[in-house]
Amino acid sequence: MINDAPQVDVERLVGELQALAAISDCPEPPPAVTRVVFTETDLRARDYLRSLYEAAGLTVRVDPIGNTFARWHGSDPKASAVGTGSHCDAIPHAGMYDGTVGVLSGLEAIRALQASGYQPRRSIEVVMFTSEEPTRFGVGCTGSRLMSGAMSPADLAKLTDEADDDYDTVRRRAGFTGELSEVRLPGDYYDAFVELHIEQGPELEAGDLAIGAVTAIAAPAQANFTVTGEGGHAGAVLMPRRRDALVAAAEMIAAIDSIARASRSPDLVATVGKLEVHPGAVNSIPSKVTFSLDLRDIDGANRDAVLKQIEVETEQIATRREVQLEHRTLNADPPATSDPRIVDAVVQSATSLGQAHQKMISRAYHDSLFMARVAPMGMIFIPCRGGVSHRPDEYSSPEALAAGVQTLALTLAELAR
Amino acid sequence: MINDAPQVDVERLVGELQALAAISDCPEPPPAVTRVVFTETDLRARDYLRSLYEAAGLTVRVDPIGNTFARWHGSDPKASAVGTGSHCDAIPHAGMYDGTVGVLSGLEAIRALQASGYQPRRSIEVVMFTSEEPTRFGVGCTGSRLMSGAMSPADLAKLTDEADDDYDTVRRRAGFTGELSEVRLPGDYYDAFVELHIEQGPELEAGDLAIGAVTAIAAPAQANFTVTGEGGHAGAVLMPRRRDALVAAAEMIAAIDSIARASRSPDLVATVGKLEVHPGAVNSIPSKVTFSLDLRDIDGANRDAVLKQIEVETEQIATRREVQLEHRTLNADPPATSDPRIVDAVVQSATSLGQAHQKMISRAYHDSLFMARVAPMGMIFIPCRGGVSHRPDEYSSPEALAAGVQTLALTLAELAR
């Protein structure tokens, strides 16, 4: 344990966040950010991070799918390490704080501890997970899924992107080689893993709180729906003869919204975020529509019941509209519970810093959901303005960032003693 | 008038249709066709047509937006010409008969008349209209709209495609220069214009008829809708706080379908063929959705009343869903009536050939809708299997094609006397 509040250089941290945001494929300038895994832009962001790690004297290791570990060696090389970190990929037209704050705050926490003269017994590692976002391959957290054994190398290798290239080909093309089986971490690799993240919700701001100590992560499920009707010329096929795939899909999307709003769990959320129309011409009746479903709840059983209800009601709509419906569940992960020892360390660190805090649940999922399978896990949330995330106007103030890094630094120091 | 049935080489015609279908950007092979205006593929198709025209001894003229006129000179060079023709562009993943049949049948009819020894007094011209399909610029029939004065050169020039390039820039880049004001045809240019087209509906096939003599073309309207809600992370924003643009748009699309099905006119059809979701990520709440509306009726007043009703009901949905709605009517053209003299010429030609025929209405719109503003207009329909169009399985038999070309040839001969 260290006694004083670690000296955090928040200007440096904000500068690094801005430099990272400038590495983007978004047509709009920062703070709008697009950074999709295994693109040139993703690779440039990785190079930038490596330069920061090396400047801080950390030892960098990259695994066969690009998960990156930057280690500050502890005095006991045989002891399991303490991990922190998050991701740096960003969905199209997103903001500059989601994920990046967890990676750069981990680095800043280490620099602050180094400056304080603290010497860890356990090594402390900052992890940058590959592809937390599901943008390219349809499944999120592929880095941490493979690390934790939540997904097999064979299943990962055959995920495909929109160009129909498989994950294995794309990662190799990006320069990440080696055997996928080597990505999985041994069970004793981490003694503790703690991720700092913006809340992506409104609770901390509303309660004027600086720190959330996450006790559990909600259970996400993802599914794809394909509706097949009959195309034709928009002028020539009269209404009673139509089997319009988009009209049927529209009715399904409205039904999904109604089901989610009527759920017994107030935490259940359902989102159709992606939809594609075939052939997609102004004067052509849609013959095929595909759409995604993202369904989450902190109550895993309720989430599964709602997924079942959605399947039943969309099938009924398909029957009535005389279209075919296929749905495929891509993943339906169980919720994760934080390790009480880590939650306590976060709470005590915030308390000793005089930061207002609360225990809370994460409704968004994170790499920590999967890290919980291979290590005792905890998370630290900091407030973001209006609870906004995945948008260019996502924002956490320098004060919020500083409080987060200080809490993280004390927590890591405690866990690495 | 010629006395014998013109000798049509239907094998040659089918071969030319297939050759044209092979000039395609569709990833699937013919009969699937994609040929969008001013692409390399469109230009290759135009080159192919020119080679056929020149082999038939026709004089080719191309106007400043690429409308192409192939003239068989009549004995009286001062007399207004007789026009026929259609378009060769194809929406994504379409078939090989829509439009192309009208262009190549016009050529085949001329070749048949030439072979018969017939000499026209009026010149006979095959027209290939630029961009009948609205795929690229959101508005269909730009070639015939400009020819007929239905659209001003200034309005045409500023239409934009998805890359945000304007029509004027794109046509120049494709090699079509000259002043847009020169495209408009003088009122005495054509003494008659008659277009042959597949029906794109089921009536002729159902009635076992070879020829439809079109008496009127339904009135189309097109509008764009933009729904703006609030984005955010799919996991973090609870259902009661959501203003999801896609859920609102879905409700609107279902409402449009209901309104169209309940319309007092059985000929009213409403289609949402194109929809785009922003940002379009699996785990992001849609903040913006744009969709197209295509609305047609042979009763122009009913169509306008339905458009009004759609505007009112979608506004109500927007208010209830707390999203913003903008709608913009791109065009709402009046219906067109065929010239009785041309309808009679078609009917008499079919009768003299012993082809079963009927007078009928066109529910799809065509370049002839606009040509009616600048010339006496008529259309000849031939059956297509199952009424299917705008799909790869669009099909008209060689027999149907032969009957159509013969009827067209006799009609042109009668009109060009």
From TrEMBL, chains A, B:
What is the top EC class of this enzyme, as a single word? hydrolase
Cofactor(s) needed by this chain: Zn(2+); Mn(2+)
| Keywords tagged on the record | Hydrolase, Manganese, Metal-binding, Zinc
Q: Which residues bind Zn(2+) 2?
A: D98, E133, H390
* The record's free-text note on cofactor binding: Binds 2 Zn(2+) ions per subunit.
Peptidase M20 dimerisation domain ranges (all copies):
222-316
Q: Where does Zn(2+) 1 bind?
A: H87, D98, H197
Tell me the GO molecular function terms. hydrolase activity, acting on carbon-nitrogen (but not peptide) bonds, in linear amidines; metal ion binding; N-carbamoyl-L-amino-acid hydrolase activity
Q: What is its EC number?
A: 3.5.1.87
**What's this protein's family per the entry?**
Belongs to the peptidase M20 family.
What is the protein's quaternary organization? Answer: Homodimer.
Protein name (Swiss-Prot/TrEMBL): N-carbamoyl-L-amino acid hydrolase
Specify the species: Botrimarina colliarenosi
